[in-house]
């Protein structure tokens, strides 16, 4: 069957659905294609389900911190199956809700894997779709590792689908996924949790001093973090796996029941046959200009994890880019440029580690022009109150303007404090102006003023 549209969106996640909605609201004939359930990674396989797991394990963390401070409990444990049911109670109704909200706007939905035909039409199962414009919002998936036995490696989605506590689990890579999920595993009752990181540093985008503290905390919890570990091969014997890796101690092995990929994600564009519509790509995705339009085919736009932009693959970034796609499509010209405000980022460990703006490394070349303040805050009231040993901040301020250039936070409340500081940065507030804001006391936000001189 042949169908003709004004716009076809490929991918029903954060970067796709909002563009479909905006154009449909303008009276466009819009189609959207999704090969999995409608809703995308963040809602169904990423941010949201992960934080439901986190909510349960926060209980374990709180009990551990407060057990000799008056909180008496019987040995707390996580019932993984129930935790999984709790998570499913949130995500299961979502695809239908997303589909209904799209249908209400008259958007036609297609279920299946999209691939361009050589004549420029889009094939989805038996449907052939033609369109004036295409928006590629296909997201990202785990990169190939090029390791012997990599077929045994499972994904973050598999982890979120587990119904039972993993007993011996190894995470490949020392980034967001590995740290968040390793802590969930450990607090969830796993006996042996290992992170194998290829380089000498983990959580590379975050402040090194705070990361060192997070590593110490994770090791104290019993997570084995192996640095400079280059995996040679993965072998399966009956129900267990042996990973052989080169480490500073020589050839080493770890035996486990489950291996999870946390070694980075790359754009989902390989199977789209983008050559057929002359769309230039790199390893990082569709090459777009500052209007989110393909540099080689003006009828194609892209945003989110599928687009090769300079920004990290995060949900707020997908949202910013998608908004620009919709505005330029509706304007029918390149009218709106993508500009990124300061974007906060959080690793949802306990305690969380957060960042916004420049790092100390970014300002290395202009040390005389900036004020860097680093302080451990375990003795501050907010950390004492919840008995958190691991808490600290580093702030970077421009000496001349007294405006905030960057903030790095570890500790209880970091994920919310970073939002307040992001607001200050994006509003161009000086330190004095930020300090003049009144916050409820005692609260994590009320600590912010003491992070700046
Ligand atoms: C485990 C995990 C945790 C995360 N946690 C956070 C977090 O806490 N905070 C944060 O900001 N970010 C987080 N992220 C990143 C965030 O989820 C992504 O940046 C965001 O979802 C990207 O949105 P998107 O619309 O570009 O892609 P997606 O949401 O991935 O949507 C793309 C959709 O396209 C579909 N698709 C792909 N190819 C085709 C095809 N050929 N045909 C049809 N459909 C196709 C896919 O099935 C998918 O549903 C996390 C990611 C993961 C994996
Ligand atoms: N809280 C959040 O915002 C959040 C959470 C999860 C995922 N995400 C998004 O998803 C992306 C993917 O997450 P991720 O954790 O997979 O990647 P990541 O980019 O955060 O970290 C990957 C790490 O794996 C290491 N690595 C790569 N290949 C390796 C190998 N063969 N052996 C050992 N180590 C190896 C890298 O050096 C790097 O440190 C993130 O970059 C982020 O954009 C965000």
From TrEMBL:
Residues 5-319 form the FAD/NAD(P)-binding domain. SUPFAM superfamilies: FAD/NAD(P)-binding domain, FAD/NAD-linked reductases, dimerisation (C-terminal) domain. It comes from the Bacteria. NAD(+) binds at residues 173-180, 264, 305. Binds 1 FAD per subunit. Its cofactor is FAD. Residues 343-449 form the Pyridine nucleotide-disulphide oxidoreductase dimerisation domain. Disulfide bonds join 42-47. Belongs to the class-I pyridine nucleotide-disulfide oxidoreductase family. This is FAD-dependent oxidoreductase. The lineage of its organism: Bacteria, Pseudomonadati, Bacteroidota, Cytophagia, Cytophagales.
């Amino acid at each position: 069957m042949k169908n003709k549209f004004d716009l076809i969106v490929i991918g029903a996640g954060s970067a796709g659905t909002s563009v479909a909605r905006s154009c449909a609201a303008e009276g466009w004939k819009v189609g959207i294609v999704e090969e999995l359930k409608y809703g995308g990674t963040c809602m169904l396989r990423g941010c949201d389900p992960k934080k439901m797991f986190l909510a349960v394990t926060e209980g374990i963390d709180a009990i551990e911190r407060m057990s000799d401070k008056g909180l008496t409990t019987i040995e707390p444990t996580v019932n993984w199956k129930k935790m999984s049911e709790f998570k499913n109670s949130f995500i299961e109704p979502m695809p239908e809700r997303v589909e209904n909200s799209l249908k209400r706007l008259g958007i036609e939905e297609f279920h299946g894997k999209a691939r361009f035909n050589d004549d420029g039409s889009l094939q989805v199962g038996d449907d052939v779709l033609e369109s004036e414009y295409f928006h590629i919002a296909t997201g990202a998936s785990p990169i190939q590792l090029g390791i012997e036995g990599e077929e045994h490696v499972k994904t973050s989605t598999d982890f979120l689908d587990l119904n039972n506590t993993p007993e011996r689990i190894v995470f490949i890579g020392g980034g967001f996924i590995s740290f968040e999920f390793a802590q969930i595993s450990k607090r969830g009752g796993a006996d042996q949790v290992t992170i194998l990181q290829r380089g000498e540093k983990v959580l590379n985008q975050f402040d090194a001093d705070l990361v060192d503290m997070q590593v110490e905390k994770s090791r104290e919890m019993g997570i084995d973090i192996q640095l400079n570990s280059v995996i040679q091969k993965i072998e399966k014997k009956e129900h267990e796996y042996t990973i052989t890796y080169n480490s500073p101690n020589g050839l080493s092995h770890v035996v486990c029941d489950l291996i999870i990929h946390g070694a980075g994600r790359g754009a989902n564009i390989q199977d789209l046959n983008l050559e057929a519509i002359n769309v230039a790509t790199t390893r990082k995705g569709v090459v777009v200009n500052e209007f989110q339009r393909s540099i080689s085919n003006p009828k194609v736009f892209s945003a989110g994890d599928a687009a090769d932009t300079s920004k990290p693959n995060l949900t707020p970034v997908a949202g910013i880019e998608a908004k620009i796609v919709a505005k330029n499509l509706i304007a029918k010209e390149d009218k709106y440029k993508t500009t990124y405000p300061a974007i906060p980022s959080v690793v949802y460990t306990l305690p969380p580690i957060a960042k916004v703006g420049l790092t100390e490394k970014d300002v290395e070349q202009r040390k005389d022009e900036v004020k860097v303040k680093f302080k451990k805050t375990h003795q501050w009231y907010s950390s004492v109150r919840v008995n958190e040993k691991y808490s600290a901040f580093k702030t970077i301020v421009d000496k001349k303007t007294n405006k905030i250039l960057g903030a790095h936070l570890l500790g209880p409340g970091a994920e919310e404090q970073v939002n307040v500081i992001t607001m200050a940065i994006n509003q161009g507030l000086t330190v004095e102006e930020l300090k003049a804001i009144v916050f409820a006391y005692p609260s994590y936000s009320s600590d912010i003023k003491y992070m700046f001189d």
